[in-house]
Amino acid sequence: MIAAIWEVTSRFSGLPEFMFPRLTQVLETLFNGIVHGQITAAIGKSMSRLLIGFSIAIILGLIMGYLIWRFKFVEDTLGFLVTALQSIPSIVWFPLAIVWFGLNDFSILFIVTIGATWTMTISATSGFRNVPTLYQRVAKTFGSTGLHFIRTVILPASVPQLLSGLRIAWAFSWRALMAGELLGSGGGLGQLLETGRSLGQMDLVVSVMIIIAVIGTIMDNVVFVRLERSVQRKWGLV
Amino acid sequence: MYLSIDGIQKSFIGENKQPVTVLDNINIEIDKGSFVSIVGPSGCGKSTLLYIIAGLEKADQGSIRISGKVVKNPGPDRVVVFQEAGLFPWLTVLENVTYGLLIKKIPKKKAEAKAIDILKMVHLSNYINSYPHQLSGGMKQRVSIARALVMEPDILLMDEPFSALDEQTRMVLHKELMDIWKKTKVTIFFVTHNIREAVLLSETVIVFATRPGKIKEVIVVPTTGDGITTDSVTLHTEQRILAILEEEIEKVLKEEMGDDYSFKTNHLHRNDSGDLGSHI
């Protein structure tokens, strides 16, 4: 239905094609882009950045979350700072990143990471804090200490909260990635959008938007919803 | 003496920043293989004492010694069975039971075989691959007992382990616990507010006074030669403990409801406090 309206309005609207491309034209560009590798390469580039940045953010978030949970003075200092930093949209860091690292891959990676880190830190902290005392006591009476204690009790017990943190963190870094690529350089989906704009190829722009929507939906509805469901089923929370 | 509790003193910071003494100079000596219960009104510090023995909390003064060795940290020689089962929901029943064994560096195969043996003892061998949420309350508590027993602890610390269960399940578990105790001869330190439970299960009942928590009286439950306590003796012992506790209960109630309240004259317990054994 939407497709039909799109096709018809674009044909009769009188707007030039570079402003309002036809659906068929968009699909053609999309198909060509995927087959010829222009869009696929961009997807690969973006996803690899996202994966690296997101992984770093998770690790950093978990470590900082642990420190905030574990030590009171870290909570008073870093904990407060994190809440403040979280309210800064990560693209705001971009000018600084360009000055620090130059207009390159590293800058984009930096804002992707920073976009997810604070959220991850906050949800890790609250996840760890909400681990029932009972579980901790049980583990301790069985002789669990140190790393083993964190690995076998604290982390698994906070998995439900960590998962929802991951989901939000992912959303933040995905948006940060697009913004960063749009402004930055070195390929990726955002860069492709910018190319499309400067060449007046709106069909390419719309194709990339479709790809972005598809990836976002897959991650959210397939990956995270499935993960959450499987945890809920295992724990009997449903 | 096997387990010696020596001059334990413990206080918390109360609501108005005043220290509240919960345990006041507690001295108890417990023989190896014995079954000792502690009864007392709520808030008398009996659970706190258990946590101190477990090493989960620190005493302000005094020491806990097991065969002469001072206890400082939690350890697998003194496993606790808590009021709630506290099974890890992300592990299966079998994984929950092997959890402690794997910390002890026992090979996985051997640990699993041991766990299955113990689960048979508590009649749960059909549920080894279930997750805790699939079990009933009584079954969960059985798993938690199995998880403690599989460690072959020297002392089993039980903190009101059956109080969250319904009456039938509790009776079944009483019997199972007695069987287990006779079979394994583990030393059991049992905290409860249920006088009948304490008298039925244990050899020695320690009655606690409240605020500050201290030992009011130590009662040895008389048994006939074969270790079975007859009903009339149980009843008699129960009433004796209730008489001792009455004063303590009144103290707690007065604090909660005001000075004009009297437990003794109102005889509330005749009607509705079956837990205290008055309905027999």
TrEMBL record, chain B:
Q: Which InterPro entries does the annotation name?
A: AAA+_ATPase, ABC_transporter-like_ATP-bd, ABC_transporter-like_CS, ABC_transporter_ATP-bind, P-loop_NTPase
Q: Is Cell membrane tagged as a keyword?
A: no
* Gene3D superfamilies in alphabetical order: P-loop containing nucleotide triphosphate hydrolases (3.40.50.300)
Q: Residue ranges of the ABC transporter domain? A: 3-237
Which UniProt keyword terms apply here? ATP-binding, Nucleotide-binding, Transport
Q: Name one GO molecular function term.
A: ATP hydrolysis activity
Q: What is this protein called?
A: NitT/TauT family transport system ATP-binding protein
Q: Which organism is it from?
A: Sporosarcina limicola
